Amino acid sequence: MRKWWPLVAVCLGTFLFLLDTTVLSVVLPGTGEELDASLSALQWVANIYTLVLAVLMLTMGALVDRLGARTVYVVGLAVFGIASLVCGLAPDAGVLIAARGVQGIGGAAMAVTTFALIGSVYRGPDMGRAMGIFGAVTGLAAAVGPMLGGVLTQYLSWRAVFFLNLPLVAVTVALSLRVLAAGRPGTGRRIDLPGMAAFAACAGSLTYALTLAADEGWTSPAALGLLTLATLSLVVFTRIELRSGAPLLDVRLFSRASFSGVMMCVAASTAAFAALVYTSVWLQSGLGLGPVRAGLALMPLALASFATSLISGRRLHGRSPRAILATGLLLSGIGCALQAGLDADSSAGSLAAGLALTGIGVGLMGPAMGAAVFAALPPERGGMAAGAMTTFRQLGQTLGVAAFGLLFQHHGGAMSEGLNRVLIAAAATGIIGSALACAFVPKPAAAKATGTRPRNLTGSR
Residues in domain Major facilitator superfamily (MFS) profile (predicted)? Predict the structure, then answer.
């Protein structure tokens, strides 16, 4: 039993990191009422966390090279815990958004170190068991999040969601310091601060432009200015990375059609989760359900995803990531389409079948996503592939929430009409992603040759 304690320490942190992503799907409406926050502000409560994650994933990989995985992991936990305390005490939406951003800093540190920590302890069959358990924990966080958030919000307060993190962080830090090996910090590559700043400016201004356009329109001076800033920042980022000897992201990789296509599939895979934010708003503000009932209404997706990931992780291991990823994206898209068609007479039960099918698709995508990304590049670029995957996944969800907010607000009628638009857009994203997977994910022979787990999965080279 002693040899599994390091895995427990890593899984606890992963559970916390993912829980604070999924739990907000039922927490935001109550938060908005108490803090008198607008829909745009609520979007930022969700967006700032995933945006910071996307911006810092690659940078945290470089810090792991310099300081060691355990140090970055423990510091990330501490930052996450302190930020959770501030979230729980937040007097207004502005403080909550800022604290959520700091939470994202801790979350990024926790996320990039998990594979490195597991890989430093386990080998052979033990590695397979450890990764299976780790995959189940990620599915469990998705399944527990909506229900836990609903119970805490309805019977205590939305603030309890953040206060719950404090004892869990304390336990995880103590356990990590005891059972995880310190390791030797290396010299590592220098941190690409100019690249990080340019990428942050691009992602942040684009997200803000999408959110602002929902209120002021695309032609407003502020929205147009932000879109211009995003474009210029992207150009600057590209030039910096092309000239850097140690880039955050080697942009030359995007000259490979297979890599670009797979990254688009990664971004598309987040559409269903981005739509959940507005599904929850409709359930609580449109139908008048309490947080617990809203959480229960979303459980078909979470439970189907959890069960499918457990089964597919064991039964489909070693199979073609091309077919599995394409199928998962297609089912996710069709599931979102089945949820659409809501009207004034619709109930929470109207979503059940579509949510379950979406959950099956999400469960299939999880285990296959990493294999598809690594199959698109040579094994020696595995670290960069892992960093790009986590970055595109978080950025996809951030931009999805912002873009769907534009559709949700400008519906010109009942709230259900706005949600229908969101769900149709999510469905189209999943179906297009499936087509991209069929076209660009390497064929089974190539995937088999390059799909082994790379040594370094921290996001650095």
Answer: 6-445
